[in-house]
Amino acid sequence: MRFLVVVLVALVVALQYRLWVGAGSLADLHGLQQEIAAQRQDLDRLRTRNQELQAEVEDLRGGEAALEERARGELGMIKPGEAFIQVIERPKVEAAVPAAPTK
After folding, report:
1. What angle do CA 62, 67, 73 make, to 5 degrees?
2. pLDDT digit string, tens, across residues 13-30
3. Cβ atoms of 38 and 32 closer than 8 Å
4. In the chain, how long is the greatest CA-to-CA distance?
5. Fewest beta carbons within 10 Å, which of 12, 53, 68, 94?
6. Is the Cβ–Cβ distance between 26 and 19 less than 8 Å?
7. How high is the pLDDT of residue 38?
8. What angle do CA 31, 34, 40 make, to 5 degrees?
């Protein structure tokens, strides 16, 4: 009888070890759930980006306004007869404050 109790206790300990620490444990399950959540966030971000890109493609296919805007903004193109003027702003320089004389 004592032997049977020892075997059952050992079996319970082995099963508990596998549940908490071994392969397929609760810790592994929690880690996998976190990875799934991260993958879902990435998937949502990529779906949003794909929708934006698809809308941009449709704009470029459908109208000249989007195409013209892109040519002007990214390629620096201008229409015949237009003049290109580029304004470069200088960063403001603070006036140097003279140091107080030391005694």
Report:
1. 155
2. 877 777 777 677 778 888
3. no
4. 104
5. 94
6. yes
7. 97
8. 145
